[in-house]
Every structure is written in C-alpha cells, then in structure tokens.
Amino acid sequence: MAGRRTFFFEGLGVSEGVAIGPAYVIESDRADSESWEIADSEVEAEIERFEEALRLAKDDVRSLGQQVAERVDRQQAAIFDAHLLMLEDPFIVEATIKRIRNERRNAQSVFWEVVHELGDRMKAIDDQYFSERNHDLYDIARRVIRFLRRLDSPERIEPPRNRAIVVAHNLGPAETAQFSRDHVVGFCMNEGGATGHAAILSKALGIPAVVGLEFITNYVRSGDMLILDGSEGKVVLHPTAEQIRHYEKKKQRLAAYRRSLEEYRTVPAITRDGAGVSVLANIELPEEIASVRANGAEGIGLVRTEFLYLSQPALPSLDQQTAAYRAILTGVEGLPVVIRTLDIGGDKLPAFPLAHKETNPFMGRRAIRLCLDKPEMFRTQLRAMIAAAVGRELSILVPMISGLDEVRQTRAFLSELVAERGAAGQPVPLAVRLGAMVEIPSAALLAPALCREVDFLSIGTNDLVQYTLAVDRTNSDVASLYRESHPAVLHLIHHTVTAGIAAGKPVSVCGEMSSDPRYAILLVGMGVRTLSMAPSAIPVIKRAIRAVTLVEAEELAREVLLQTTPEEVERTLHQRLHRTLEDLKQAPPSPSQPGASPVAAG
Ligand code: PEP
Ligand code: MG
C-alpha cells in the first residue's frame, strides 16, 4: 500500500514458488473456549501457573526485543518495551488473579476475558494509536496463552477465503493440512525448520512457503500486502509497485520453467551411461494421488498415514482406514506402493489425547514405539492395510526403527493378523513385504543385521540428520546446524546402502534429500537406485539424473566420502555439479537426447 514502509524478512524457503497477496494472520485466540472450573484447593496453583506464564512471556519478549534491536534497529525494538509494560499492567494482571480467585476458573479463560474487555474498550476509541495498541495487546495475550497451554495440540483453523498468504507463529502439520490451494497462496511462520512436517506438507500441497522468520507475526496484520518467495526464503511486507512487478515476472518465469519440465514426466530416470533409477512419490494426503502419475512417478515409495490421525478428533476406524488405503492402492493401480505405519509423535500430534505430553517428544514415544505400546491401535492399522491389499502385494514400512526387536515384533503382528484372516476364511494379500525405515543412527549402524530381518530398507534422511547431529528438524534456531552434507550423515547412508547391496535387499531414500538434485546424484553415486520424493520434485530429479553418467556420480561419491566437514562436501558438490545444475535451470534439452550438460570437472 502506498506510503507504508516496506519490510524485508529472510527465513528458510521450504516450498518453492512466488505468492503475492494479502496476509491472513492466524491468531491463536481460542482460549475463550478453554474454560473449566477449578477446585478451591487448586486456586493458588492456578495463580502460580498464570504468574509463571507471565514470567516466561516477559523473557520471550525481552529476547525478541534484543534480536530486533540487533537485526533491525533500536526504534523498532521499542515496541517490545510497550509489550513488557502491558505484561505488568495491574489492570490486566491483578484483574485476572482476582477473577481466578473469585470465579474459580482456569487462568487462560479468565485472562482472555480480561484482555477482550480491555480490547473492546480500546477498539471503541477511534484512534490510530489505540488501534495499534489493541493489536499489541492481543499479541502479548497470545504469547501468555501459549505458555499457559504448554501444549501444541492442533487447532481448528478458519481458512482464509480470499486466496491469502497465511502468517502464523507456528503451525503443526495438522493445522497446515487444513489449507488448500484454493484458499491459501502462500504460507509463512516465525518458527520451523526445513524438514519439519509443516514444511513437507506445504510442499505436498504445492503452496510456496517460508519458515523460520522469527518475528514476522509482530509486524504483519491481516490484509497487509505481502510477497513471499519460497525459492529464496524471502518475504516482503508492504511491497512497492516496482517490487510487485518484479515478482510477478519471476512468478511467470517459474511457471514457464515448470511447464518446460513437463516432458520429463514421461521419460525414465536413466543416467547418460544407461543406469536406471526408480523415481517414486511420497504422499501425505489422499488428494495427492492424482499428482503421482501426473508427475511421472513409477510408484509410491512412502504413504505417510498420519493424515488419518491428524485430521479428525478420534482414532480412525478399521473401515475408514481400509477405505483410505484401498483408495490409494487402486488410485495408482499397477504401480508399487509402500504404506508406512503410523508415525505420530515428534511434531505430529493428533487433535485427541493419544499419549501424555512429553518434554522431549522427538526422543519420546514416537511412531513404532507408540504403536507397540498401543497394540490394539496398531492391530487396527495393520488389519486395514492387509484388508486393503487383498489380491495384491502389500509393502509395509515401519518408522523409527532403532533395533531388531521392533522389526521382529511388527513381523509377529503381521503373521498373527494374516493368519487371523486365513482362519476366518478371508482372502489375504499375495505377499506381505516388511521394510524398516533407517532414520536413527543405530538402525543405520545395524543395517547388515536389519537386512536379514526385512525385505527392504528406506532411509529417512529428515530424521537421520536430526538424530545423527542432535539438531531438532523443526527448530529455526538451529537450522544452520541441520546439514545433510555432514560427513557423519553421509557415512551412515553409505553404510546402509552398502549393506543393502551386499544382502540383495533394496534400499531407497525417502527423505527430502532425494528431492535436491545435488544429493540425488550423490545418492545414485553411492549405489541408491530408488529415490522417493514430493511428486512435484520428480521431473527436476529425472532431468538431473539424465544429465550425468553413473561413472561421474560414483566418482563424486568417492570424493565426497573422503571429506571430513560439511563445508568441504558442499564445496565439492558445488564445484562438480554447479554447471550442470545451472544449465538445468535453463530451458531443458529434449528428453530424447539425455545428458546434454556434463558434470563440471572437479
Ligand atoms: C524422514 O524422516 O526422512 C521421513 C521420510 O519421514 P518423516 O519426514 O515423515 O519423518
Ligand atoms: Mg522420519
């Protein structure tokens, strides 16, 4: 809008593409519906809880203020002093404490009412200053409520209706899954890492996204004009007409580039010297089935089944799951499909209480651990998979395998359930293949032994990086330490692939790493022959594989595996692949003449 100061924000681009449109700020103001009575004996503890949340909110505001002072300027940071004053305002604090005592209700509902009453009075004053303070008031209220809740259970989100760019503090995959391309053209948030599930979902939904923007929600109001560049990780608030023109052009260029890749959908991924690579799709949502074939996938290498558990208020029934899995299997009839058992936990939390809150959820009762602890829930899912695959082959993949025992227990469940159908005279799948995800270093180190227990392995690099380097994949504060190029990660992958080759067991890679052309080529050089990725990445990866020879990819892998730091690895990838990959960004050669661009010499 003319006359408004333009702000630039930089974060992590996690889903490519450009979006231009009004902001839609997701405000977590749902505390009014979180009202419950408390007993006399609980009053003092509830007040303490409120005071602790205020303290934490103040610490948070102070550190934000410092960051803004360092990165933007002191003047902008002054707003946080005003926030601190509000957090100490007796009208808010004392009024809340008094009402918790008198009304015997929980802190967030009382606090939210106090804030609303004050907010309404401010709104009634027709003045620019008060309208801005009103926004500040809600901003600090949401901060306090987040600390009061101390749980990240997904919220129902009212989606925007005006093709807006969603701006949020942090959204989990359950919330992100509620967006659709019809309503949301872009997505950005303060927190989040490159391979968090909100990021993965925005890619699956084809919505450009930037995460890790730190404090963008403090600047943007719903309705403000934004530009979001998911390829470069940039967001522009109140862009000038010139900037809008520039990004409109970029948007058109990207669309033309994507159209130019279309012909790669129908050709196989074969290196210039004839080595074939299977390129498969990962799907997070049933509506992606159409894009599997449309992008030329040779099958589905990973069905994340969490969508059934994240999108509804109770556990999905046997019938519901059977129908969902059958729809996927028949939707890509004739193509191989690998369905993964439930990977709930970490940053994927259902809307209903399935397990108690954990301090360290990524290290906690996630995925197979939860399934083995809740055998009936696990049996229901396995029964549904078996029923859906009658008359076909069923490939089941188990996440978060840390050792042999989880595989053996899963196999025992499968034998029991297949026998159960047999005894009841019900038909069974033609074969049941069991695979283990290698995403914890212990599983990678045990790969030779795992190969004796399973039919195939699939390397989940998103978690393998997180668990090898002890870097939370969703935490933007440590995003710079999250490096697929870390030699420790690469050695674990290489060890796993080598074990698979020696045992004659297929090993695929289904983490985000396989959708990056540099790493796709490196993985092929290490011996990987199956890559599974977001459907939209498939044409680019096919094209990258067709641009190199296996000999070159193997040389690259040999060189990279001798290196000892992520920087060296990245430098080598850049030196050897930059020219090829830059050429690929230009109009592609006809797929009938694969490999028009050689790998640059090292
Ligand atoms: C992975 O960890 O790489 C993976 C594919 O699983 P998810 O991203 O669902 O954890
Ligand atoms: Mg994983």
Short description:
The chain is an alpha/beta fold and 602 residues long. 47% of the residues lie in helices and 14% in strands. It is built from 22 helices and 17 strands.
Walkthrough of the structure:
This protein is α/β, with parallel strands linked by helices. It folds into three domains: 7-28 and 169-259, Phosphohistidine domain (Glucose Oxidase, domain 1), CATH 3.50.30; 40-152, Enzyme I, Chain A, domain 2 (Orthogonal Bundle), CATH 1.10.274; 262-586, Alpha-Beta Barrel (TIM Barrel), CATH 3.20.20. Helix content is 47%, strand content 14%. The protein has 22 helices and 17 strands. It has helices spanning 43-71, 74-88, 90-103, 107-124, 128-149, 173-176, 197-204, 241-261, 289-294, 307-310, 318-331, 368-373, 375-388, 404-423, 441-445, 447-453, 461-469, 487-503, 517-526, 538-546, 550-560, 566-585, and strands spanning 7-10, 12-15, 18-25, 164-168, 184-189, 209-211, 225-229, 234-237, 269-270, 276-283, 300-303, 337-340, 393-398, 431-438, 456-459, 507-509, 530-533. The strands form two sheets. It has an eight-stranded mixed sheet with strand order 1-8-7-3-4-5-6-2. The protein has an eight-stranded parallel β-barrel with strand order 10-11-12-13-14-15-16-17, surrounded by six helices. β13 (393-398), α14 and β14 form a beta-alpha-beta unit. The longest helix is centred in the first third of the chain and has 29 residues, at 43-71. The relative contact order is 0.10. The model is unreliable at 151-156 and 593-602 (pLDDT under 50). The site of magnesium ion has 5 residues, from α17.
